[in-house]
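Question (not urgent): is this output format expected?
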Amino acid sequence: MKRFSPWLWIGGIVGVLTMGALRFLGKSTDIFGLLAGMAVVIAVLAFLVIRYVNRNW
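Got this back:
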């Protein structure tokens, strides 16, 4: 068995919470609200990944 990876668990939890939030957002808004929510999620994740990569480069 491989070594425990906290990044894998953190990524899984963030993914599940994000999909749950988008599901509830999709129930209460139209398709444009859902697309806006998805764009915000992608922008935040991209910002965090770019920041992390630049710090550890």
